[in-house]
Specification:
Domain Damage-control phosphatase ARMT1-like metal-binding: 408-717
Low-confidence stretches: 348-364
CATH superfamily of the largest domain: Uncharacterised protein PF01937, DUF89, domain 3
CATH class of the largest domain: Alpha Beta
Number of domains: 4
Family: In the N-terminal section; belongs to the type II pantothenate kinase family.
CATH topology of the largest domain: Rossmann fold
Oligomer: single chain
Subcellular location: Cytoplasm
Shape: globular
Strand content: 15-25%
Strand order of the largest sheet: 6-5-13-12-7-8-9
Number of helices: 25
Subunit structure: Homodimer. Interacts with PKM.
Mean pLDDT: 90
Structural class: alpha/beta
Helix content: 40-55%
Pfam families: ARMT1-like_dom, Fumble
Length: 731
């Protein structure tokens, strides 16, 4: 580009992953053996890296490429943007490679489609006067059609209809270059950033003629307010005085932004589009230009169209050029996820708040995307995927909640680092890596205190996911693997007696006992401090003790009677989808007896567990071993597995929370195929921090025990309050 070089490259990353597999128990005494073996293996995954350098450091950038990225097979380097012409000879000479120039607009749009599809919080609206400058939008499952307004030296307006179909529908020669050029003539300031700095301090009303200057007030007949600009620079024709550089820069900025805003609105109306994304060096995260463009779009569209900006806007061309070069690997057939551990995030753009950061982020800035093993899609049962928001509380907006949760994660950090180190007793450098993890996550939390919007909307889920990403970066793939192994073994020993006692109860009593068992199982959550303290200090704390902790009915949220009535009077459900939470007592003594009851009623069950580890949540591979053991003890489970009435699947997630818009493609297909008509979500992370307000097309049960006193207080209850939410879709 004109001032920055953006570099995109692909690498393979070696990660440690925890694998579990059944022991071969043929003829051995297995009474005191662990349930299964855990091995840590190396796995190779794909990662995309995006780095930004200032053009003044182009030599450093090329050194970096030469030292790390070029191998003997590399013959060609893809490049796009003005610099692909300007630096072509330098690049070819220094790297000994042929520069293959790609079309700027094609690259821009390819990059734009990629981030819109893969980064849930990519798009934001700018609001200068609210508590947080950036308001993130939920990605609509269908990203097309949209208007892309690229404000570089001039303005290009492109209508994008599909992945490969777009057309240039208009533009203007009055763009960023005009602001820069005229600004330089008027203020003698040659640098773009300095010009914006001047504009941010200026008062345009000293230079511009307003409606009230012409009519003495508002122009009522046309409904124009007195403070509207009637004529840009209008006062300079009549006044004899000198105007300040600041005021002239501000007036010029308004003049050009308003012109572009009106043009964009007219094209959007003409083509019936309501999504307008702005990009180009004129925008590039500058608060002053984002504010004037936002105002202009709002004014000319009478509030019907919103100006939208992209978090990674500066990278679009580089991403597009990369995708063009990698077409044979078809990167678009995969889903990708932002790796919070290796990405620097969006910095506050207010120049006075963080002058240091402004300069730092200009020089060096990173984004990392990890390739996910399987494509992710919406749960087909979401009532309206375009309005679904997984998270219950937006910490970007709620300052009190934000302060509480950041402190909560800070206070838990030493314990998490200790647990990580203890999980690898045979490793010589575990303590050192655990300390590096602690430091990294601590720094992330401090960044988020200052700039809660760094990675999109801040939520409890994003804080948990960032922690998991940081643990993985320092090779702690599953710090709770041993804890889960032990708890699964203990719970399996109690399974038969729990089933016998349930089977001895009358029908109605049994339904209540099953629900109580699910809730009691949900208490066993190492992610909640109130629980992990008890589990650390009272190893004998078990299923019955957990039941006694539960709130008595009526519960904090209690639609149990409606659920019971539905079971009594309605036909059996065709198929239930259950999202499981914790290992051990939760899945074995809580979920499986509940599954068994549904199966006995003639309901098929899809049991969905995490693909990868997070805290002590049960993973898909652990659930297979647990189910195999239960089937050996229980004929109902045995025949259901054999006849494929009980299906175990993975969610595609490695988070303690649940985003129903990013689920494994295979799970979604199964949900459709089996005509699923009941969804059960259990646990605090999946049913309270996320999905508390999720609206589904079918019946749903959301149940959890609140194991955090602040959250309980927020919801109007006490610690260990119960949420039992049975919802029926409105007919």
């Amino acid at each position: 580009g004109g001032s920055l070089t953006k570099l995109a490259y692909y690498s393979t990353v070696q990660h440690k992953v925890a694998r579990v597999r059944s022991f071969d128990h043929s003829g051995k005494d297995i009474e005191n053996e662990p349930l299964y073996e855990i091995s840590v293996q190396e796995e190779i995954t794909a990662r995309l890296h995006f780095i930004k350098f200032e053009n003044t450091y182009i030599e450093t950038c090329l050194d970096f490429i030469k030292d790390h990225l070029v191998n003997t097979e590399t013959k060609v380097i893809k490049a796009t943007g003005g610099g692909a012409y300007k630096f072509k000879d330098l690049i070819e000479k220094k790297l000994g490679l042929k520069v293959d120039k790609e079309d700027v607009m094609t690259c821009l749009i390819k990059g734009c489609n990629f981030v819109l599809r893969n980064i849930p919080h990519e798009v934001f609206a700018y609001q200068r006067d609210s508590d947080t400058e950036f308001r993130f939008q939920t990605n609509h499952p269908n990203i097309f059609p949209y208007l892309l307004v690229n404000i570089g030296s001039g303005v290009s307006i492109v209508k994008v209809e599909t992945e490969d179909k777009f057309e240039w529908i208009g533009g203007s020669s009055i763009g960023g270059g005009t602001f820069w050029g005229l600004g330089a003539l008027l203020t003698k300031t040659k640098k773009f950033d300095e010009l914006l700095q001047l504009a941010s301090k200026g008062q345009h009303t000293n230079v511009d003629m307003l409606v009230k200057d012409v009519y003495g007030g508002a122009y009522q007949t046309l409904g124009l307010s007195g403070n509207l600009i009637a004529s840009s620079f209008g006062k300079s024709t009549t006044a004899d005085k000198e105007f300040s550089k600041e005021d002239m820069a501000k007036s010029l900025l308004h003049m050009i932004s308003n012109d572009i805003g009106q043009l964009a609105c007219l094209y959007a109306k003409l083509h019936n589009l309501d999504k307008i994304y702005f990009g180009g060096f004129f925008i590039r995260g500058h608060p002053v230009t984002m504010r004037t463009i936002t105002y202009s779009i709002n004014f000319f569209s009478k509030g019907e169209v919103q100006a939208l900006f992209l978090r990674h806007e500066g990278y679009l061309g580089a991403i597009g050029a990369f995708l063009k070069g990698a077409e044979q690997d078809n990167p678009n057939q995969y889903s990708w996820g932002e790796n919070y551990a290796g990405s620097s995030g969006l910095m506050s753009t207010s120049p006075d708040v963080y002058p240091m950061q402004r300069t730092r982020s200009g020089t060096f800035d990173m984004l990392e995307m990890d390739r996910l093993e399987r494509p992710l899609v919406n749960l087909p049962l979401l009532k309206d995927p375009s309005t679904y928001i997984p998270d219950t509380v937006d910490l970007t907006d709620d300052a009190m909640a934000r302060k509480y949760w950041l402190t909560c994660f800070e206070e838990a950090l030493d314990g998490v680092a200790k647990r990580a180190a203890a999980s690898q007793p045979d490793s010589g450098d575990a303590l050192e890596r655990a300390e590096k993890f602690r430091q990294k996550y601590w720094n992330k939390l401090q960044t988020l205190r200052q700039q809660p919007f760094a990675y999109g909307t801040l939520t409890v889920r994003s804080l948990l996911d960032t922690r998991e990403h940081c643990l993985n970066e320092f090779n702690f793939p599953d710090p709770y693997s041993k804890v889960k192994q032990k708890e699964n073994g203990i719970a399996l020993k109690c399974f038969q007696s729990v089933i016998e006692s349930l089977d001895s109860l009358g029908w109605e009593e049994r339904q209540f006992a099953l629900v109580k068992g699910l809730l009691a199982g949900n208490v066993f959550d190492w992610g909640a401090k109130a629980v992990s303290d008890v589990l650390e200090s009272e190893p004998q704390f078990g299923f019955e003790e957990a039941k006694s902790k539960l709130q008595e009915r009526p519960w904090l949220e209690d639609s149990y009677s409606q659920w019971l009535q539905r079971l009594k009077e309605g036909p059996p459900h065709k198929c239930a989808l259950i999202f499981a939470d914790n290992s051990g007592i939760d899945i074995i003594l809580g979920v499986f007896p509940f599954v068994r009851e549904l199966l006995s009623r003639g309901t098929e069950v899809i049991l969905a567990c995490n693909s990868g580890p997070a805290l002590n949540d049960v993973t898909y591979s652990e659930s297979l071993i647990v189910a195999e053991r239960i089937a050996a003890m229980d004929t109902v489970i045995h025949s259901a597995l054999r006849d494929e009435k009980l299906l175990l699947v993975q969610t595609g997630s490695s988070s303690p929370c649940l985003d129903l818009s990013r689920l494994d493609q295979g799970l979604a297909a199964l949900v459709r195929e089996r005509n699923t008509d009941l969804v059960i979500i259990e646990g605090m992370g999946r049913a309270i921090h996320t999905n508390y307000y999720a609206v589904l097309k079918c019946e749903s049960l959301k149940l959890a025990v609140i194991k955090n006193s602040w959250l309980a207080d927020r919801l109007g209850g006490k610690i260990f309050s119960v949420i039992f939410k049975y919802e029926v879709p409105c007919q």
